[in-house]
Amino acid sequence: MQQNNRITSLFNIQYPLIQAGMIWASGWKLASGVSNEGGLGIIGAGSMYPEVLREHIQKCKKATQKPFAVNVPMLYPDLDKIMQIIIEEKVPIVFTSAGNPKTWTPILKENGIQVVHVVSSVKFALKAQEAGVDAVVAEGFEAGGHNGREETTTFTLIPMVAKEIEIPLIAAGGIATGKAMLAAMVLGADAVQIGTRFVASHEASSHLKFKQEVVKAKEGATQLTLKELAPVRLIKNKFFEDVQKLYQKGTTPEELKELLGRARAKKGMFEGDLEEGELEIGQIAGLIDKIQPAAEIVKEIITEFEAAKQEVAVL
Ligand SMILES: Cc1cc2nc3c(=O)[nH]c(=O)nc-3n(C[C@H](O)[C@H](O)[C@H](O)COP(=O)(O)O)c2cc1C
């Protein structure tokens, strides 16, 4: 592994490999499992009530001596409480997403916390840099979960963002192997953030049925939808088809909101309702063929990354 990597030095971790913060998937077990193996584990606060988050942070601190982070989607209703807990519990690193980085970055940094913001375009990467974040995650159209409207793929987004910003860059979207990690780093990323592959881990808190659905998914199994509300990449299950039917007849954001209702994501990903629930996952699910321990995933990716470097050296 290369020395003096900007991300490994920034976070004080062994490998430039970050396990993404994910609602209904990344609790303390997954985050500490990845951090213990030398990557950076992230607790996804987006599906947690404030006191549940506190519990996850405290358990994570007991389960690992290594750095870990919390991801906070900033459209959260209890945002003030969430940030207060993060500060009180002395979480070393925060990944913010879905909001304006100007609001919280200065406050978190005053409290000695490193801040990373997730973006999906060059424009937002520059805004995040201006807001004073320590690094950005640039997430391509392939990624699981909520996404940008521009439909820029990881392969095109990374070199464009790398060209414009000074601060360290983390690539996300469609990366699940050591070869993809190397490709992203060749394109200008300092590290990678991986979501979908870690959903298919024993430690992910998602329902087993959802994990099995991820393993079953083939190329073309997902699509970005609900652009009028918040664009999200989903497995094409019954709920997705219901959304499509509304589009076909000509729909309004209000009607879409009503169909989406509350707790669709929980129903699908946490409770395992594969018909009626929302199943957020990335395009790269088509490549994933088993559920594994998180530590094994980290080891496999790093081993393949190192081997791929040797392979390309002879090209
Ligand atoms: C099930 C699931 C839930 C997610 N939840 C969040 C979230 O709460 N906050 C966030 O910033 N990103 C979320 N994401 C996006 C990931 O953090 C990550 O950037 C993305 O998964 C990377 O692309 P990949 O899935 O192709 O690896 C989620 C992704 C998935 C698959």
Automatic annotation (TrEMBL):
Transmembrane segments: none annotated. This is 2-nitropropane dioxygenase. Keywords: Dioxygenase, Flavoprotein, FMN, Oxidoreductase. It comes from the Bacteria. Pfam families: NMO (PF03060). InterPro entries: Aldolase_TIM, NMO. SUPFAM superfamilies: Inosine monophosphate dehydrogenase (IMPDH). GO terms for molecular function: dioxygenase activity. The keyword Electron transport does not apply.
